[in-house]
Amino acid sequence: MPFALGARAAARGYGLVVFDQAGSTNIEALASARQGARAPCWFVTTEQTAGRGRRQRPWVAPRGNLASSVLEVLNVAPVVAATLGFAACLAIENALRQVSREAVLRSGGSSALDFAVKWPNDVLAGGRKIVGMLLEAEQVAGGLAVVAGIGTNVVAAPTDTPTPAVSLRDLGVEVSAEDLFSALSESWVEYFGIWNEGRGFADIRRLWLERAAGLGQPVAIRSGHAIIEGIFDTIDEQGCMLVRTAEGRLEPITAGDVHFGSVASKGAV
Questions:
Q1: What is the mean pLDDT of each successive set of 10 residues along the chain, which is 269 residues long?
Q2: Where do the H-state alpha helices sit in 109-172?
Q3: Does residue 79 sit in the same domain as residue 135?
Q4: pLDDT number for residue 119
Q5: Phi, psi values for residue 17, rounded to 5°
Q6: 228, 250 in Cβ contact below 8 A?
Q7: Strand-pair partners of 150
Q8: 151 and 239, same structural domain?
Q9: What gap in Å lies between CA 71 and CA 29, rounded to an integer?
Q10: Are residues 174 and 225 located together in one domain of the fold?
Q11: Of 55, 57, 95, 111, which one is least surrounded by beta carbons within 10 A?
Q12: What pTM does this model have?
C-alpha cells in the first residue's frame, strides 16, 4: 500500500512528498521551505539513514519504521512555535492509539496498549520510548518555517538509547508505516487546529497533561552537568516543565534529559 494522506488532510490542502529512502525528512522539509514552498506538506519515508533527534543524537529508521516531517509556514514568534511540539506529540499518540486498537481488534484481542507523552517531545508505550520528535524552525520570506519531525518505531527499535525503546511489533501490534501515517495526517489536522497558532495552547496543555508520563512522580533532569531533582508538578503556559524541589520551590526546566522513578533516585545516571 502506498503512502496517502487521510481524507481531512487532503481536503485541507496538505501536500505529500514520499521518499523510498531519505537521509532526513526534516532536512528535506526545511530545504523545500528555503526553495519557496509555503503550503503545508508532509515528507515521509520508511527508511531514514541520517535523521537527528534532540542534542544532535542520531535517529535512524530502518525500513518499515515511519520517519515523517510536516512543514507549516506560520506568522508566529519562535517562542510560540516551540509549543507546537506538544500538539505534535498528542497527534502521534492519538494515531498510535487508533491503529493499535484496530490491530488488536483484528487479531481478536481486547486489551488496549498504554501510551503516554513524555516531556518534552517523546511518546512512551508501557514506559518505553516508541516515538521521538524534533521541532525545528527557520525564518523564510513570508513567515517562520516550522518542521515537526516525528519518528516512530513500527517494526524495530534502537537498543542504545538513554530511555529503553520499543516498537509496535515488539508489542504484538502489526501495522504498516503507511497505515500509521494516514492516521497521523488526520490526527495532525485535529491537534494543529486546536493549537491554532498558539492561541489554543491552553487546551493543548490540558490534553497533554491528561496523557503525561510521570506527572506527580519523582523526576531527575540532567541539563549539561547539572541535575535537578524533585516532583514533576506540571508544565507552564510556555511548555516548561515545573519541578517541585525538596525545598518546595517550583523550578522551571526548559531543556534536559528526563528520568522518572528509580532512575531519578539514582541521580539520572
A1: 94 97 94 97 89 54 91 97 98 96 78 88 94 96 96 91 88 95 98 98 98 96 86 96 94 90 52
A2: none
A3: yes
A4: 96
A5: -120, 120
A6: no
A7: 68, 133
A8: no
A9: 6
A10: no
A11: 111
A12: 0.92
